[in-house]
Structures are given as structure tokens and as C-alpha cells.
Amino acid sequence: MTDGFRLPPPSAAEEFDGESFAPLYTTTVTASGGTARHGRVSGRARSADGVLDLDLRMPAELGGDGRGTNPEQLFAAAFAVCFHGALSLVARHAAIDPAAISVEATVALGRDPGDIGYLLHVDLVVRWPGVDPEAAAPLLAKADSLCPYTKMAWRGTPTSITFSS
Question: Binning pLDDT at 50, 70 and 90, where does residue 29 land?
Fold first, then answer.
């Protein structure tokens, strides 16, 4: 299954031995403009380097025109890509070709029954043709422990909020 397939160099995770958070990459995206309904903004999301520059729109299901992307789509894409990367890394370290892996993330926005706010629910579906479910199970568990998005979902993420006028 790995003929002609070369293992990658060790991951950054194996090189880290510190006791505190050590950023490997930082990015900034600014959301601005548009109107807000349901606690949601439409307008624009733009990264500091300009590579990401998207129109934001309310989905049609929430009364918007649906002619742009929305936070749930962006989050689903990021979650799927991140878990795919973690699982691919784990597969390579197990000498299994990850080329056939696909990860589908479904993100649902709903009301939080505990307060007046909102919650997200995420479902990941991993498709890996030709790999036995019993062989995949420990790899999925390892990917779950490596992926920062699943860590965020299970543990929460340290967040700071600063006001600037």
C-alpha cells in the first residue's frame, strides 16, 4: 500500500518539548460591513495578507440572500481540512498512504438551551476506501488528539476580547 510513497519528515509536534503554548503560525482576519441579523454580520472577511477576501452573506435558511459564504461554511471547511491533515500525518507515520482519505464536516448552528445564545454542532465523516475500520480506529483517535480543531471542540480555546475605538 505504500510502494513509492515516502514518509514525511517528523512533524512539529514531535519537536516540541516546552510547557507553554508556542505559536507556529498566526493569522488575522477582519470581518466588517454589512448588516447584522440573528447576531450575524454580512459584509466582508479579509485576511491581513489579502489572500482571503470573501463576501459574507446570511444563508437563505436564516433569511439572507445566500449569495456569499457564511461563518458555518468557513468553520466546516477549516475543521474538515485540519482533521484531514492530522489524519494524513498519522497515516503516513503508520506507513499507510493517505491519498484516499476524505473528511466531510457538517456544522449546524442552533440555539443554546442554557442561555439566549447560540451553539455549533459538528459532525465529521471520514471516508477511507480500502482501509479496515478496526485498523482506522486507532488512527482516528490519534488524529483526534492532534487536530487543534477537535481539541478546540472538546476543550474550548483560550480567547481574549479587547475593545479598541
Answer: very high
What radius of gyration, in Å, describes the C-alpha atoms of the chain?
19
Look at the block and give the residue holding cell 464536516: 105
Q: Distance (Å, rounded) from C-alpha 96 to C-alpha 100?
A: 10
Strand-pairing partners, residue 53, are: 46
Give all strands (DSSP E) within 3-93, no chain letters.
Answer: 29-32, 36-37, 40-41, 43-47, 53-56
Q: Please provide the distance, in angstroms rounded to a whole number, between the alpha carbons at the two ends of the chain.
A: 57
Handedness of CA 29, 33, 34, 39 (dihedral sign): positive
**140 Cβ neighbours under 8 A, 6+ residues apart:** 87, 126
Q: Please state the pTM of the whole predicted model.
A: 0.83
* Fold of domain 12-155: GMP Synthetase; Chain A, domain 3 (3.30.300)
Where are the chain's structural domains? 12-155
Written as nine digits, the cell of 30 is 477582519
Query: Hey, what's the cell of 48?
Result: 491581513
Q: What is the pLDDT of residue 10?
A: 47
Quote the pLDDT of residue 40.
65
Instruction: Give 49's strand partners.
Output: none
State how far the Cα of 34 lies from the Cα of 55, in Å rounded to an integer. 10
